[in-house]
Design goal:
The structure holds 2 protein chains of 2 kinds. Chain A is an alpha/beta fold. Chain A contains 7 helices and 16 strands. Helix content of chain A is 28%, strand content 32%. Chain A is globular and about 75 Å long. The relative contact order of chain A is 0.17. Chain B is an alpha/beta fold. Helices cover 25% and strands 27% of the residues of chain B. In chain B, strands 5-9-4-1-2-3-10 form a 7-stranded parallel sheet. In chain B, strands 13-12-14-15-16 form a 5-stranded parallel sheet. Classes of the chains: A alpha/beta, B alpha/beta.
């Protein structure tokens, strides 16, 4: 059994600040790490590897500086990581990202399972798994919550908005994991020591994938794009440093003023 | 057939009407047609005219059975109808279908759209979309050509009903096939009440320590005729409630949202930021929720909530939403 798992180095969006005057997003200095969802992706993949035997390669398109970010992923049970240096520095269009990932998994293949998160922590666009499945001509089992291998087939519970649907499919297939479905395991010191010996292979889009950023950009359908932050307009009044009863009265006063509470003497 | 058509799909009836309403507005400005994809035998199909559809294309009910069959059916409709623009509902089913459909049709794609316009002369589309888990907004200007967008429930208002009947056009469609075998399906447990319509929501975070403590929170909710919501860990880790508020959960828009023991992570705020007023109780003065609230109370919720109820009772107050 050969499993490939896609993991993204994601921004911690809770740390993205917005300049209230200009509505500019401040992205510099926002911490980046393997996303929570992709720790779940790795956990799901390791469990399948443990059940069926085989290998697990994690694949990441990200900055070359991320080379040291995979200790946990390797300690959890991935055998190696292929890090493809992102020629777009994180600003590539999803269409181009998907083409690079496609080329990488074809190069690493043939595989039995390609796994991904249903949506990345920062992009949260739900698109990489479906688009890759389409480009690879493989079936997609999306939003997977339970996974098992039975008689050469993959069985999964799909976590939909209103229902849980159980499906089965022949391999090879693409799987996207649902949020919080596979809480990552705790790793031991032994795991960490073993992880140190596991390779992180650094590729570029050009070598060995033979892709150039210029060629990829030619597929772009964007004439232009720009971004701003969302500025919240709230009163921001803070009550503190007094007894609970006094603080309660202050909040009640404010709610009366707002005509949310009424009546009384 | 028609290069000046907006094709609309959502498996969720209310969302489909919202999308049709928006598509109708754009189509009117351009002199275009609006078409909806529905499942054959859907009793609501004929009435989609009242939401703005000119045409409906029925697809075999088997298309609703698996994502692959849905994709194959939608792609076949798009191939025959040749729409210039496709708008789909941002549900889990819709997000998957839209991304794969865009890839298959070699179309431009953007999810989480909150606004879009189509230029009447160039027919090029511009879209504003939520970015970075809704902390930002991107504006994309596309080159002319097919564009697929998705929009979430509640982004576009429910359209006023118009006097209009949609023409049902049966395209020659094969039974959609797929490689996924569906073994079964079970409905999810739902929250008992419709949080989306609540005027008052008490939002429970991990600062509420034990399940028994919910009685305290509930007493505040019931005093003011409100309902309980919670953050994701309170639902997914502790399993106190079947659903949570936020990016990946429910979105509420009450008159007042009272956050108790909620830190204020952006992914959670997305679920409550349409509230008219937000009040928050947290014992950590540095909690990010205080930057996002109208009224912040730095206090231990276990001391504050009883005092809050007591003051409301003592002052004989009631909320405006109770008669
Ligand atoms: C991709 C992604 C999607 C996500 N989607 C969602 C989502 O949809 N919804 C969601 O909620 N989260 C979501 N999250 C998780 C989110 O980032 C936060 O981790 C989560 O919302 C935190 O929940 P919390 O505020 O209840 O808990 P915590 O962050 O643990 O905060 C608890 C708060 O309680 C306060 N507190 C403790 N004791 C007391 C006391 N006695 N009195 C008063 N205050 C007290 C503390 O000071 C603290 O601020 C998502 C995360 C990711 C990465
Ligand atoms: N740059 C990347 N490198 C590796 N995997 C990625 C990358 N971007 C997205 N993915 C995968 O696709 C999933 C969904 O991301 P998205 O569609 O961007 O929300 C992530 O959870 C990853 O598994």
């Amino acid at each position: 059994m050969k499993i490939l798992a896609l993991i993204k180095i994601s921004l911690d969006v809770a740390e993205i600040k917005v300049d209230p005057a200009t509505a500019q997003l401040r992205l510099e200095g926002v911490p980046e790490k393997v996303g929570n969802i992709d720790k779940n992706t790795i956990e799901a993949a390791v469990r399948l590897k443990e059940a069926a035997g085989g290998t697990l390669t994690a694949v990441c398109l990200g900055p070359a500086s991320a080379k040291d970010s995979f200790k946990d992923v390797l300690a959890m049970g991935a055998d190696d990581v292929t890090l493809i240096e992102d020629p777009f520095g994180g600003k590539g269009e999803p269409g181009a990202v998907v083409r690079i990932l496609e080329a990488a998994v074809r190069k690493l293949g043939p595989f039995d399972l390609l796994m991904a998160g249903f949506a990345s922590d920062d992009g949260y666009t739900y698109q990489v798994a479906p688009r890759l499945a389409e480009r690879l001509g493989l079936p997609l089992v999306s939003y997977a919550r339970q996974l098992s291998l039975e008689g050469g087939k993959l069985k999964a519970d799909r976590d939909l908005d209103d229902a849980i649907q159980t499906v089965q499919v022949d391999l090879p297939a693409v799987v996207s994991v649902a949020e919080e479905a596979f809480p990552p395991r705790r790793t031991t010191l032994m795991d960490a020591i073993k992880a140190k010996k596991k390779p992180v292979n650094l590729w570029t889009a050009a070598d060995p994938l033979g892709l150039s950023a210029e060629e990829l950009a030619k597929n772009s359908r964007l004439a232009s794009s720009s971004q701003i932050g969302i500025v919240v307009h709230r009163k921001g009044q803070v009550f503190k440093g007094q007894s609970a009863a006094v603080l309660a009265d202050k909040l009640v006063d404010a709610l009366v003023e707002d005509k949310i509470l009424k009546g009384g003497a | 057939m028609s290069a000046n058509q907006i094709l609309v799909f959502s498996e969720k009836a209310s969302l489909l009407r919202e999308l049709l309403g928006k598509a109708r507005q754009e189509a009117d400005a351009l002199g275009w047609q609006v078409a909806a994809v529905v499942f054959e035998g859907d009793p609501a199909a004929a009435s989609l005219g009242s939401a703005g559809a000119d045409l409906v294309y029925p697809v075999p009910p088997a298309a609703g059975e698996s994502p692959e069959r849905l994709l194959n059916a939608l792609a076949e409709v798009a191939r025959q109808a040749q729409p210039a623009f496709i708008l789909m509902g941002a549900t889990k089913v819709g997000m998957e279908a839209a991304a794969s459909l865009a890839e298959r049709l070699d179309a431009a794609y953007a999810p989480w759209t909150v606004r879009f316009q189509i230029d009447p002369t160039t027919c090029a589309a511009t879209a504003q979309c939520m970015l970075f888990a809704s902390s930002g907004m991107a504006t994309y200007q596309f080159t002319p050509g097919l564009v697929v967008l998705t929009s979430a429930p509640g982004v576009f208002p429910k359209p006023a009903e118009v006097e209009k009947t949609a023409r049902v056009v049966s395209l020659p469609l094969a039974q959609p096939q797929g490689r996924l075998e569906v073994l079964g399906s079970r409905e999810k447990v739902r929250g008992a009440t419709s949080l989306e319509d609540a005027r008052f929501v008490v939002d429970v975070g991990q600062g509420v320590k034990q399940r028994e403590d919910l009685a305290l929170v509930e007493s505040v909710a019931s005093l003011l005729g409100g309902q309980l919501g919670c953050s994701r860990p309170v639902s997914s880790d502790r399993d106190w409630f079947p659903e949570w508020l936020g990016l990946s959960g429910k979105k509420v828009k009450p008159d007042l949202c009272l956050c108790v023991g909620v830190s204020g992570a952006v992914q959670h705020l997305v679920g409550i930021r349409d509230s008219q007023r937000i009040a928050a109780v947290n014992n950590d003065e540095g909690a990010p929720i205080f930057n996002q609230a109208d009224y912040g109370v730095v206090a231990d919720l276990y001391e504050f909530l009883p005092a809050f109820s007591e003051r409301i009772r003592a002052r004989g107050l009631r909320p405006t939403w109770t008669a």
